């Protein structure tokens, strides 16, 4: 239940604070005074899309915040699952919208995405606006009514999952059949490509090794010559040109005076280290000289091998041997799929058929529950509509079965309606007048109110097209809906409905030098008399209107 609402810089509202109560409340005001603005602000708290144009002119941002009493709503798991602080009693939802178009949302001061606001809003408030009357011609809406009355929430959720699985298997089977057809046509070409790559005996890393070997074989003489020259510099046949011999002699000379000259010892040791390192290098050069040789036959093989790899890479439009190996594996998998396609298709077909059997079984159980609910709806709707100025009303739920189940089940449903003895029953949305549709929708809302744990219901001019005694009876229905700690708020233009609210709010506009500002105030007893008299007679309030207003309010004159 919403206990308070704060609106700041939204549309025509500069700053507004409202407290709400349990039971049946009404909101009245002239057309354009700002009643729809308040609904729009509440809609933002329920996760509706925001528009920066709704920010009051000149303001940098607007803020809408509401506090809800959710102690009896059973929402502990919701807050726990979404890691939101919760004291077990209240919930505060805040939405901020900047002039730059940025939007921020919070639940109990924790940042929350709009999807979370929508999920929470669906558990807190049901706003019935006039456009929702159009739902009467939507089959899904009518099935939803039956599912609510039949307490089918979990049953329908389970059916939806089963149906989703079935449709997924249908799609998988279709793809498998199509793939098998296409692969069968391409099998010869796929097999040729695979065998070509298979016969190449490609080895991961081979290309880099072959390219390095090709470079060595191609320039073997240059490499060998360079190595010979390097070796000669270090260790030549002539002692005078032998760097190692010269280093050895240098070290020997320094060792000869190391007892006389301390620095010579260190220098001799350093030359010894250089001698050892250079001797090791000379030996490695010798080994490389022996390993490098010009081999024309090996060079031909390496270049032929590289040409094969390059041609395969060009053919398959890749740049590395590793990518060729991936293609080879893919082709192999595709060939295996072709070989086992019939087996895979048969497995999928059996899984699909089994899933379809489960769909039909669950759909039939759902249908049976809906038929029982339809009988309740027919009976209760007649009971609701008879007192609402429809003494000859007939209301029935026409149900038939589809040839095959769909996402909603096996049932086709239509709410049939006739307000007159001599009129055949037809789809309610096509034969009911505006006032009749309003009464039908109110009756449906009243019917399902007891079956859903919705703490707050807001009616936006549900009384369209009715007046007088009928309006009063509609108000009594809303009063009954507001019992048992439920909160029902009706935005109305009818004094008969306004008079029956336990609490009465008035929305009005005030013009100042710079802007037009909307306000809302909760009326006391005397103010209610004046407001209802104004609704009865207009601006010129007569004594008769005052008397009539007091009578509607049950106030002794």
Mind explaining what this structure looks like?
- This protein has 557 residues and is of the alpha/beta class.
- Helices cover 55% and strands 18% of the residues.
- It has 18 helices and 15 strands.
- The protein has helices at 35-45, 76-81, 114-124, 139-149, 153-199, 206-218, 220-234, 243-256, 262-291, 296-315, 321-339, 341-385, 428-431, 434-449, 468-481, 495-498, 525-537, 543-553; strands at 2-10, 13-19, 23-29, 61-69, 90-98, 103-107, 110-111, 125-128, 394-406, 409-418, 426-427, 456-460, 487-491, 503-511, 516-522.
- The strands form three sheets. Strands 2-1-4-5-6-7 form a six-stranded antiparallel beta sheet, covered by helices on one side. Strands 8-12-13-3-14-15 form a six-stranded mixed beta sheet.
- The longest helix is centred in the N-terminal third of the chain and has 47 residues, at 153-199.
- It is elongated, with a radius of gyration of 44 Å.
- The mean pLDDT is 87.
Name the helicity range. Answer: 40-55%
Which structural class best describes the helix and strand composition? alpha/beta
The biggest sheet, with number of strands, parallel, antiparallel or mixed sense and barrel status, is: 6 strands, antiparallel
Shape: elongated
Major β-sheet strand ordering: 2-1-4-5-6-7
Beta strand %: 15-25%
Unreliable segments of 5+ consecutive residues: none
Helices, by number, come to 18
Number of strands: 15
Average pLDDT confidence is 87
Distance between the termini: 35 Å
Radius of gyration: 44 Å
Descriptors:
18% strand; 15 strands
Summarize the SSE layout with pairings.
Blueprint: E1 2-10, E2 13-19, E3 23-29, H1 35-45, E4 61-69, H2 76-81, E5 90-98, E6 103-107, E7 110-111, H3 114-124, E8 125-128, H4 139-149, H5 153-199, H6 206-218, H7 220-234, H8 243-256, H9 262-291, H10 296-315, H11 321-339, H12 341-385, E9 394-406, E10 409-418, E11 426-427, H13 428-431, H14 434-449, E12 456-460, H15 468-481, E13 487-491, H16 495-498, E14 503-511, E15 516-522, H17 525-537, H18 543-553
Parallel strand pairs: 3-13, 3-14, 8-12, 12-13
Antiparallel strand pairs: 1-2, 1-4, 4-5, 5-6, 6-7, 9-10, 10-11, 14-15
Helix pairs in contact: 4-12, 5-11, 5-12, 6-10, 7-9, 8-9, 12-14, 14-15, 17-18
């Amino acid at each position: 239940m919403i206990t308070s609402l704060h609106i700041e810089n939204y549309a025509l509202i500069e700053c507004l604070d409202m407290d709400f109560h349990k039971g049946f409340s009404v909101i009245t005001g002239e057309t354009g005074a700002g009643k729809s603005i308040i609904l729009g602000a509440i809609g933002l708290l329920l996760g509706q899309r925001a528009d920066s144009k709704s920010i009051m002119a000149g303001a940098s941002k607007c803020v809408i915040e509401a506090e809800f009493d959710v102690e009896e709503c059973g929402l502990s798991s919701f807050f726990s699952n979404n890691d939101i602080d919760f004291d077990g009693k209240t919930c505060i939802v805040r939405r901020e919208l900047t002039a730059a178009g940025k939007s921020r949302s919070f639940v109990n001061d924790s940042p929350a995405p709009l999807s979370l606001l929508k999920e929470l809003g669906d558990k807190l408030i049901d706003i019935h606006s006039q456009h929702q009357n159009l739902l009467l011609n939507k089959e899904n809406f009518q099935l939803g009514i039956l599912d609510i009355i039949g307490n089918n929430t979990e049953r329908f959720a389970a059916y939806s999952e089963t149906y989703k699985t079935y449709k997924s298997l249908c799609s998988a089977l279709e793809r498998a059949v199509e793939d098998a057809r296409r692969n069968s046509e391409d099998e010869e070409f796929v097999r040729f490509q695979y065998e070509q790559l298979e016969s190449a005996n490609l080895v991961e890393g081979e290309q880099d090794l072959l390219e390095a070997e090709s470079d060595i074989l191609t320039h073997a003489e240059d490499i060998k010559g360079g190595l010979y020259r390097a070796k000669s510099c270090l260790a030549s046949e002539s002692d005078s040109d032998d760097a190692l011999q010269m280093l050895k002699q240098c070290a020997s000379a320094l060792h000869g005076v190391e007892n006389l000259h301390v620095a010579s010892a260190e220098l001799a040791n350093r030359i010894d280290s250089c001698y050892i390192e250079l001797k090791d290098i000379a030996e490695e050069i010798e080994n490389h000289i022996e390993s490098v040789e010009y081999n024309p036959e090996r060079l031909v093989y390496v270049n032929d091998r590289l040409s094969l790899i390059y041609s395969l890479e060009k053919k398959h439009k890749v740049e590395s041997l590793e990518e060729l190996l991936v293609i080879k594996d893919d082709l192999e998998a595709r060939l295996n799929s072709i070989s086992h396609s019939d087996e895979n298709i048969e497995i999928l077909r059996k899984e699909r058929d089994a899933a379809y059997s489960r769909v039909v079984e669950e759909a039939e159980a759902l249908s049976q529950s809906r038929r029982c609910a339809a009988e309740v709806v027919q009976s209760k709707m007649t009971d609701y509509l008879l007192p609402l100025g429809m003494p000859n009303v007939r209301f029935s739920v026409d149900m038939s079965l589809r040839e095959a189940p769909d996402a909603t089940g096996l049932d086709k449903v239509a709410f049939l309606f006739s307000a007159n003895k001599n009129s055949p029953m037809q789809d309610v949305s096509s034969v009911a007048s505006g006032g009749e549709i309003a009464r039908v929708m109110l009756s449906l809302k009243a019917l399902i109110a007891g079956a859903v744990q919705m703490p707050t219901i807001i009616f936006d001019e549900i009384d369209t097209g009715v007046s007088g005694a009928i309006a009063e009876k509609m108000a009594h229905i809303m009063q009954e809906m507001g019992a048992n700690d439920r909160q029902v708020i009706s935005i109305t233009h009818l004094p008969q409905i306004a008079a029956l609210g336990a609490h009465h709010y008035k929305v009005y506009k005030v013009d100042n030098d710079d802007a037009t500002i909307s306000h809302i105030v909760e009326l006391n007893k005397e103010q209610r008399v004046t407001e209802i008299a104004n609704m009865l007679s207009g601006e010129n309030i007569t004594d008769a209107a005052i008397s009539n207003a007091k009578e509607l309010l049950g106030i002794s004159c």
